[in-house]
Amino acid sequence: MMQECTEDPISSNARKRVLRSPRLSQPQIPLSYTRDPSFGPQVSVDFATTKLTDNCLSDSTHTDEAFSSTLKKRELTDVEKDTRDISIDALGELTYIQQLQQWAQRLQRTFGTSFVMLVATVYCAQGFMSFSKLALNYFFKDNLALEPAESQALLTIVLFPWGIKPLYGIMSDSLPLFQYHRKSYIIICSFVGLLSFLILSIPNGIQTPFGSVMVLTIQSFAVAFIDVVIDARVVEVSRLDPVNGANDLQSVSWGAMAIGGVIGSTLSGPATETLGVRASFFFAAIGPLLVFIMALRMTEKKVSIASSMCLHSASRQLRHLKEAIGTPVIWKCALWIFLSHAVVPSYSQITFYYATEFLHFSPEFIGSLSALGFVFLLLGTLLYNAFFKEISFRRIFFISQLSLAVISFLDILLVTRVNLELGIPDQIFVLGDTVIVDVIGRLKAMPVLVLSSKLCPKGVEGTMFALLMSISNFSFSVSEFVGAIIASFLGISRTSYQYLWCAVLIRSTMKIVPLFFLFLIPSADPQIIVDDLEFSVEESSRSESPPSGTIRHDHVAKSSPDVEAEEVGMKTRPLSVQ
């Protein structure tokens, strides 16, 4: 029962962009996951997911005339209108396949095949990252011969780029590269990601921890940057269809990530076991290669902005972000999001070593657990939407956090081998933990997403949401680092797990601590307070280049691949660490 808790970030695997509409008092969240990206989950997609259109412009109260001046509306023929305006009753008479065909045709007409393929490719590649995650764990354990605590500390460094994602959004908004705000960044970053995997795949190539961490950190930076930039492009293009555009593209992205995650998780075990980690890294390069090819075909209007305007746009966004985070209701909730994870030590690599060295779980079994996680994370999302979304934030956090703490104590049965005395095999015990923790963890992750969306003032919605997700990502890095310190202090190594039960006991006890900080969460709806805050974008800066310097929902952050993978069921380790 040492399944890594999926309660986390957001996201991501999310996760994925639960954004507030100015016309709704309650954020609209996907009924099924799926991006966390999802940090979504992501197998069954609700085509009525979060509406971003009304918030795409920095002034969320724009009129139809203002919207028209910002974007030239796409004229539809009578045939297209008749096709798109299918009534709900008519849809009910169509088969599921026919509805999908109608939806695909609308996507093709509105956004073009090349752009839809680009979005699908990028998010499918992100989901496919689960393929390399298992190989990475074995690479640290076998090729680099690292101790569990060392491996965990180094992976914390690798995930650092996911903690500063708002900076990437500000950079791509304010600084066009080779006259493109999006295309150039995607091309460069996908090539960097491709090159990183190829370097790692060289036989007898990098064999030092320093070199490995350096390459992996660069690769992590490339993926995180692409994640932000493609979100920006999705929001921009979704304006071509103010009614369905945002929902349709979100469905494409989450569905593609689900497909990539399931494929990557399913193949990761057999590939690692039969081909080895180096060959697995080589085939993992397929993801960034496809993104690179599709990015070359990407169409985007060229812009030209003076360097002074770039600096002015970036400084304005940072100033507004600083003012927003200084609001008491925002910084208190952000503090709780951080503390709820950071105070709980995490043992991801320690438990991975324990599963492979002591329990002798095969790569294929671990990969199967990862794929299975998608199903139960989806179940958790459905349960939240069906029964828990109307419950106050304090109450749902109390219920989910306390439940996770209780379940965590049961992990002691596994590490002390009591489960065998009870007649429960290790694999069945861990499988049951995967189901329970994924579902309960999702019941905590979803309200964190909703709360974060409510904390975003008008004018800085996207950047603020990205900041909150980065805070959550950073809290997980702190949790992993603290866990590495505790494991080292207890003398836990790949040959000695004598005091692993003590580490689990500390972790389980600390899971109760966040309950004492729930006073930081407002008893009333925080959106009532946040709605009084507004940071509008100056017209002078927008006049230079419409896509530049605006603060949009394009920077909604997904969680890191590690965290998001867990959130969407792409876990490559069978044991819980939180």
UniProtKB/TrEMBL annotation:
Keyword field contains Transport: yes
Ranges annotated as spanning the membrane: 115-140, 152-172, 184-203, 275-296, 329-353, 365-384, 396-416, 464-492, 498-521
Primary subcellular site in the record, as a coarse category: membrane
A cellular-component GO term for this protein: membrane
Disordered: region residues: 1-32, 540-578
Bilayer topology: Multi-pass membrane protein
Places the protein is found: Membrane
Domain of life assignment: Eukaryota
Record key words, sorted: Membrane, Transmembrane, Transmembrane helix, Transport
Entry coiled-coil feature ranges: none
Homology family: Belongs to the major facilitator superfamily. Folate-biopterin transporter (TC 2.A.71) family.
Protein name: FolateBiopterin Transporter (FBT) family putative
Organism listed in the record: Albugo laibachii Nc14
